[in-house]
């Protein structure tokens, strides 16, 4: 595999935008980062330059797209390749009503042959980016132990070598997207069985991983990688600060203060080009999660970053207040 997927941050709508990814890259130099999901029609007919924009520092970075029309997915793949993405991933996991009405996402677990046609078109269209699949273990009343192996077999027969598997079924009726992340039970054993049955494939596990050590445990048990979503967003230091070691890279572990100060030039450049500071700071609220001062850090940013004209000084204020609380705690 040209891309090391031992650890990745899952694609998350409204969260893993380019500012979030730049922040995560400062914490870990190696972790694979994913865009928010964007539909193939949105890329083809919408503001592609904005949707595909990323900073060169984000590499390795993957574009996730949704769709079920092979021709549209091929076009979107070419656009992603032209933009410089290292990977293009097709979403076969999102359970939202909007996704179902568009005939993509988790509902495609019921149509493995169509998914196979889609990935074939994407692979033919790619000019360098690796094509991968993110899927569920099944949907609704399907038996995952029958459905997932057949899905993997059908799709991998077209040449796909890497699957990120969210180890929960998706319920397309009766559960919200949020509930679909928590309510259906996890089945890690099935994902491990897939890897044992198909050692030729790269199998990355997703869903329910709450700590860096939990991710490492699944990898040590035989999987090729772990993909973490919400915890990596809400507590990025827990997941990403030591991540480079998984890649065999001896990188210095950064402190939240170093990460924050490392963001200053990026934030200032964003402001200089007409952006707002809270477009970036909203992704930084969890940098002190679980630490003394986390509350004042979040409160200061939340109260001040949205004010017209707010700049980098907001972060200085929040950081100084947080560090002062930490110094006091150490002195007591």
- List the strand order in the largest sheet: 1-2-4-5-6-7-8-9
Largest sheet: 8 strands, parallel, barrel
CATH architecture of the largest domain: Alpha-Beta Barrel
Span of the ends, CA to CA: 51 Å
How many β-strand stretches?
9
Describe the structure.
By secondary structure, the protein is of the alpha/beta class. 45% of the residues lie in helices and 12% in strands. Strands 1-2-4-5-6-7-8-9 form an eight-stranded parallel beta barrel, surrounded by six helices. The relative contact order is 0.12.
Write a brief structural summary.
The chain has 332 residues and is of the alpha/beta class. The protein contains 16 helices and nine strands. The protein folds into two domains: 241 residues, TIM Barrel; 76 residues, Four Helix Bundle (Hemerythrin (Met), subunit A) (Up-down Bundle).
Task: Give a topology summary.
Elements: E1 7-9, H1 18-27, E2 32-34, E3 38-39, H2 40-45, H3 48-52, E4 61-66, H4 70-83, E5 87-92, H5 97-101, H6 112-125, E6 130-136, H7 144-156, E7 162-166, H8 177-180, H9 188-197, E8 202-206, H10 212-220, E9 225-228, H11 230-234, H12 236-240, H13 256-272, H14 278-281, H15 294-304, H16 313-331
Parallel strand pairs: 1-2, 1-9, 2-4, 3-4, 4-5, 5-6, 6-7, 7-8, 8-9
Helix pairs in contact: 4-6, 6-7, 15-16
Tags for this model:
eight-stranded parallel β-barrel; alpha/beta; globular; 16 helices
């Amino acid at each position: 595999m040209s891309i090391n997927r031992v650890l990745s941050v899952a694609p998350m709508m409204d969260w893993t935008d380019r500012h979030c990814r730049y922040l995560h890259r400062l914490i870990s130099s190696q972790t694979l980062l994913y865009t928010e999901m964007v539909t193939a029609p949105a890329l083809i007919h919408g503001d592609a330059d904005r949707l595909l924009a990323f900073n060169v520092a984000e590499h390795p970075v993957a574009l996730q797209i949704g769709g079920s029309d092979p021709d549209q997915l091929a076009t979107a793949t070419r656009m992603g390749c032209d933009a410089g993405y290292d990977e293009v991933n097709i979403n076969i996991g999102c359970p939202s009503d909007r996704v179902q009405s568009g005939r993509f996402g988790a509902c495609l677990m019921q149509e493995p042959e169509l998914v196979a046609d889609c990935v074939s078109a994407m692979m033919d269209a790619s000019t360098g980016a690796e094509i991968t699949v993110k899927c569920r273990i099944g949907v609704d009343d399907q038996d995952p132990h029958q459905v997932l192996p057949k899905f993997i077999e059908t799709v991998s027969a077209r040449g796909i070598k890497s699957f990120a598997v969210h180890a929960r079924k998706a319920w397309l009726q009766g559960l919200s997207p949020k509930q679909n992340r928590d309510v259906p039970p996890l089945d890690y054993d099935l994902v491990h069985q897939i890897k044992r049955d198909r050692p030729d494939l790269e199998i990355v596990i997703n869903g329910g991983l709450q700590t860096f050590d939990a991710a490492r445990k699944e990898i040590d048990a035989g999987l090729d990688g772990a993909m973490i979503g919400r915890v990596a967003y809400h507590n990025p230091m827990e997941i990403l600060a030591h991540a480079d070691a998984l890649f065999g890279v001896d990188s210095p572990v950064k402190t939240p203060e170093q990460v924050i100060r490392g963001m200053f030039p990026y934030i200032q450049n964003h402001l200089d080009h007409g952006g707002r500071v809270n477009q970036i700071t909203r992704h930084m609220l969890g940098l002190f999660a679980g630490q003394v001062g986390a509350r004042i850090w979040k409160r200061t940013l939340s109260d001040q970053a949205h004010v017209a004209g707010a700049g980098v000084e907001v972060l200085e204020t929040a950081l100084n207040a947080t560090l002062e609380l930490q110094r006091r705690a150490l002195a007591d």
